[in-house]
Amino acid sequence: MARAGRRGRGNVTIEDVARMAGVSAMTVSRVINDEGNVRDTTRASVQEAIKRLNYSPNSAARSLAAGQSVHIGLLYANPSAAYLSQFLVGALEGTRRGGCHLVIEACESEGADEQAEATRRFLTTEVEGVVLPPPLSESQPILAELAAAGIPAVTVAMGRPREDALNVRIDDFAAAREMTDHLLALGHRQIGMIKGHPAHMASAERLRGFRAALAAHGLDPDAAPVEQGYFTFRSGLVAAERLLARPHRPTAIFAGNDDMAAAAIGVAHRHGLVVPDDLSVAGYDDTAPATTVWPELTTVRQPISAMAEAAVELLLVRLRMMRAGMRIQAAERVLAHELVIRESVAAPRRAARPRSAASGLYAPRAKA
Amino acid sequence: MARAGRRGRGNVTIEDVARMAGVSAMTVSRVINDEGNVRDTTRASVQEAIKRLNYSPNSAARSLAAGQSVHIGLLYANPSAAYLSQFLVGALEGTRRGGCHLVIEACESEGADEQAEATRRFLTTEVEGVVLPPPLSESQPILAELAAAGIPAVTVAMGRPREDALNVRIDDFAAAREMTDHLLALGHRQIGMIKGHPAHMASAERLRGFRAALAAHGLDPDAAPVEQGYFTFRSGLVAAERLLARPHRPTAIFAGNDDMAAAAIGVAHRHGLVVPDDLSVAGYDDTAPATTVWPELTTVRQPISAMAEAAVELLLVRLRMMRAGMRIQAAERVLAHELVIRESVAAPRRAARPRSAASGLYAPRAKA
DNA sequence: CTCGCGCCTGATAGCGCTATCATAACCCCG
DNA sequence: CGGGGTTATGATAGCGCTATCAGGCGCGAG
């Protein structure tokens, strides 16, 4: 470990960059902080020097000089543990790159008052911005409390962000449509859906995508069997039982998340159905249960880490804007999702009869 | 947000403390860094002032002045997601309090070469110490690579730490013995154990505790049915099947972790056994599966977050010692565990009563 | 042509802490 | 009781960066 003198590692400093670009350190500082009032040519030559020297600012010095060491809060509530750990990994990468700290706190309660109080307690820890992964991203008490304190928040996977809000999400509508298309392409015509938690906006988006795909294939989306779930394994059991008890048993079930999909597989097994031969099951999220169950789940992967990192980045940009007194406005980042094809989905056992009206649960609809 | 001038928040600085204690800032610095060469009376008055002013050092200034911003590495490999997220929460709290940064990295491979290489790659990121949660805490290639680079490491839940090593753990022997005692006290005499992964030293400790409890109750520990598991759900299925196929079917199964215990419950249900009436099942760790399955698991809780926090703390102390050129020696922290009594364990029923599967694999009982 | 008002840039002075060295206090022994 | 060696404390000078303000420059209005 070369730790020469008091100098950190052989690090390049802002002075080195300034010298190389032929400007003052202050100008370099302005460039790296994206402040206005720097001529374009100057900015360019500074950036050139930064690149050439492979300079990266010392975050300790930065927070010391700026008189504010940035702490970003992360408030979470019993999400799936798999989701949380991936989220933390991403958030941590984001804060590391942004040179700030992450303070995390649990908020287990679902009561509005408790949530508001947890938020207030959290705010006393001097966080300057908050990241809210689901399901807290939908919590009005928390959002209200943060707004009242003037602390900016980024919501993640919030279906319907508010005015001037920050949000990171995937396109749930498109993802659900793609998965449904996948099932339809394999020949399924009787597809049941287990909806997610009603308080979670993304649930509605997924249902919308499901229905849109059906409609696009000439099926009546309103005739599709849909049962309410609440993202828990147990709610999935109940919903799957109901779906399989229907007169026209679905050949495929699309669940609003992996836990409920895993439950559907369990129910299928209990009914003596072979997955995927007798029943295809598709999940959503690609979390741990997806690969724990057998057969492994075909599901939709959300780039959870990347979303968390994007959230932190968005928040840091916002904080800088606020500090500079710039006008703020809504910002949203939509990241790419991915269909993960595993073993829980296959063509229905009886040879697909795509155009036979009688085979379908859904009455074919007159093309609009 | 009172952000007066450039001053952070109305923060007390080292100068304030120095003035109050009637010494120089340098002396205060010495006290808070636990350096020698400070008279006891001086130290006391400084500490008094620190407490009175509720002073806490500014970590940004600290790392800037010290010319080294501490980065602590966390290398993990596919642990249970639940374990990892709890671990991260604790580690983060530790780094926050220690005023340092956490850099985390995954090391998925189990090959020795890949692990060594991942470690080397990790070391280029300038981490000054590494925390190793299980199962990596048992990885010789990684430990060797770190030792070669002169980077101190803290292992967590390592059964048999090396010379001059740092380790944080719970007393697996005592915990397993307590759980077994609990089963024995309820009247169980035929208790089967599913061992954990053989590469994990803690597995052996848990088995030892199990046997010690049996012996203390006058039972022959070598006659107890024991099957090998590997901490995975699937390995638990196999092991549980074997235990239940034995001529003298156990009335209780103690699994080396929660995943395998959950598997044992599944197998029991398949055999038409009611848990806990016909078969008691105990787990270990108190991770997510413990409360996901029905009935919920009686298990041993490890204070995962606290262990991670302790690991970071231990590492920071070691780093400071190294920097000060002090002699280093082994250090271990043993944290308290806790028996969590839920519904999967009860007194054995006199006559094992087989039940039909139709009574409901998952059907929850009327909950009080 | 000159004044004034933008825009861009740089000099200076810290942010809170610690490394370094100098100094002061002390102690042990001959 | 005075020298040589400790041990305890303090003064000073930065660590790398940014806030602040003063100045320079260009350009349109008076």
In short:
By secondary structure, chain A is α/β, with parallel strands linked by helices. Chain A contains 13 helices and twelve strands.
- Please report the number of helical segments of chain A: 13
Low-confidence stretches of chain A: 1-9, 351-368
Q: Give the proportion of residues in helices of chain A.
A: 40-55%
Cα separation of the termini of chain A: 71 Å
- Identify the biggest protein-protein contact and residues per side: A-B, 44 and 47 residues
* SS-derived structural category of chain A: alpha/beta
Counting DSSP E segments of at least 2 residues, the number of strands of chain A comes to 12
Largest sheet of chain A: 6 strands, parallel
Give the ordered list of helices and strands of chain A. HHHHEHEHEHEEHEHEHEHEHEHEE
Q: Over all CA atoms, what is the radius of gyration of chain A?
A: 25 Å
Mean pLDDT of chain A: 85
Query: What oligomeric assembly is this protein in?
Result: homodimer
